[in-house]
Write a structure and sequence with these properties.
The complex is a heterodimer of chains A (about 450) and B (about 325). With about 450 residues, chain A is of the alpha+beta class. Chain A has 18 helices and 11 strands. Chain A has 2 domains: about 50-160 and about 335-385, Periplasmic binding protein-like II (D-Maltodextrin-Binding Protein, domain 2), CATH 3.40.190; about 165-330 and about 400-460, 3-Layer(aba) Sandwich (D-Maltodextrin-Binding Protein, domain 2). The chains are: A alpha+beta (about 450), B mainly alpha (about 325).
Amino acid sequence: MKKKLVALLMAATLVLSLAACGGKEDTTANTDTKTNTSSTTKSNETKKNDEKITLRMAWWGSQNRHDKTVAVIEMYEKSHPNVDIEYEFFSFDDYFTKLKTLVASDNVWDVFQLGGNFPDYVSKIEYLDAYVKDGTIDTSKIPDAYLNITRDTDGNLVGLSNGLNTYGIAYDVDMFKKAGVAEPTGTWTWDDYADAARKIHKATGHFGTSSFTSSEFAAGCSTYVGQQGKLGEFGFFNIGLTGMGFKDPQMLTPYIQMRADLIKEGASPDAGAEMEITNIENDFLVTGEAGMTWVAVNQFPTIYKVCADQGRTLALATLPRVTKNGNAGSHIQSSQMLCVSKDSKNKKAAAEFISWFQNDVECNKILDGERGIPINDDCRAAVSGNTKNDAEGNGKKIMFDYVTLVGTFPTPEKVNVTSPAGQDEVVDLYRGYIQKVVSGEMTASEAAKLTYEAAEKLFK
Amino acid sequence: MTDAKKNSKVNKLKYPDGKTTVKRPFGERLRRFINNDNTVGYVFAMPFILGFLGFSLIPMITSLVYSFTDMTFGAKEIHFAGLRNFIALSRDDIFAKSVWVTFKYVILSVPLKLTFALLVAFLLTRKSRMVTLYRSLYYIPSLVGGSVAVALVWKQIFARKGLFNTVWMDLFDKTVNWFGGNGKLAIFPLILMSVWQFGSSMIIFAAGLKEIPESYYEAAMIDGANGFQRFFKITLPCLSPIILYNLIMQTISAFMVFTQAQIITQGGPQNETMMYALYVYNTAIKYSKMAYACAMSWVMLVIMVIITLIIFKTSKKWVFSEADS
């Protein structure tokens, strides 16, 4: 009996583990066949062409982005029959996990997407300056200012930006009205922001402001420090990304105190509520439980549409400032960019594709500014003229106007939009410290000091 | 083996007169090789051996080596760092917290889970036709156990406006903020989820209960023992080897808890659910500090070995084996 039982158990484990393996194999097999079939059909079409080039490409994003990008890739393959693009797409976290393993094995995709964290991967990035010079990449319609947003601190062109982007505060117009709070002006301050949050909370019982989640660092550190002093005097990190850009940790304190107070009073989500926000689509602003939230403006048209469908109106306000006449602290930056990898065997073809991706009007009409506002003048005009008079179109129009507005703000000659390796850990620590201030385990000033120390450690 | 050895020796033997022995034909030797007991054994064990080498032994050794370097995820160059990682660990607050939180989780979840599993197994020993059905039903949570989907459901249940709080609101007119406040409550939904997945322990307990001879109970009943006495004096002692097995297995797997913490709380609030495995994952994948994470894993291994040894050593005192009596 015992023997039988043991045998049974063993068999069960075997079957289960086999089933698990089977499942995995299945999925890989599926994707394999997908790429296989697509490549075979393509090779049939292009039998005459001897020089067959295969480019591997990858990106992260939402389903909307995946659909649009795949459509564009198919379009490129049709007009360039000798090029076969094998694509992969991921969520943000998975993308970087995969990228790191590819970096370790010297096998990074030919064309890949990177954001402000590119210094982590700079060893794998092929600078594009040479390709611009020999004409592979066409920059005739791209203003220099928009090329500069994807240069590293030494001035090398690391990629071509997928789009212009900047931060803003999205807010619910009706909630402001209901609470009797004046809508934000172009020069509102963080005090006004906190005040509005409190009043909305009191009047509606909802959160005055949603949590900024992982953007808390961008708000309370990068932006908040940059807004102090003279224009360009301070930054969280210095321009060369070799150390801190300010000396007094206490410059961080008022923001931490403000945020902690709001959470304590219930005007902003506490840790438990914050956990329920997994992406911008279920942010409390979008679910109707908060009056404001922090957005990267390329997300705005999406949430605008969702809220319009529920009968609510969103608007976009500039970032609150430290003082009314102080620095805006916001500037146009690259949402993400496409880079050519050093591991690529077809660097020229990859550069050609990137050039097409950013410059082709038809291509950008399909992409529709989902990655940010196109950097090419013609494409930008085409995409902004593309706005229909519906919810999504209106949201897009607000985004375009907003980016134009931010473009008029005085910005320092050099801004640091990149982040040093290891910043993720500092972000997590920073958010943890704010929670500790909320629970009274430390003061805001201690939290500021610890954050500063943690960030400083990145350069040791 | 012995056969094969003899044969190979015979093949090479040369007689003084220079004549070699008759060499067996290749097919014959191949057949003998294939039918050899050892060959058969190794072939059948090969899937495990390959898996063990590729997925366990070699990665483990590599990680041990890495733990003495400054390797980062995706780095090309690595340098020897001596004990620096381990020294840094001793100063890492979050690490200390994760050890504490994991202990808390193990100490609370394992006994609860085993008690529950034993209770249900005991109830399901009655002779009824439905027993098999019930057993299968109670096993279902364990089948979907470690899955992300269940963790997501769990997250919804205990959310601010989730199922739990809706019911609680109706009953007591207030809500429980499980994952908010100072975060001290956050670990309990995770523990509850683990307790809910008692199926595999239950099946093993149920099998063990069947093994206890009916005659013991009959004898006890004739002596006038009541239900409680029968349970504590007969069932528990007879079951103690199986309890030991379950205790060890569940303790080890509880130490490795990851999915719930990652999906439901991401370690928050204030690292109150920062399980050891989750912190290892964050350090290695999110912060790219691979070597540091390797060092952490090895400390965890040592801790787990010590705990398991303690359980084994103390087991002599409470595990009753029929052979001894």
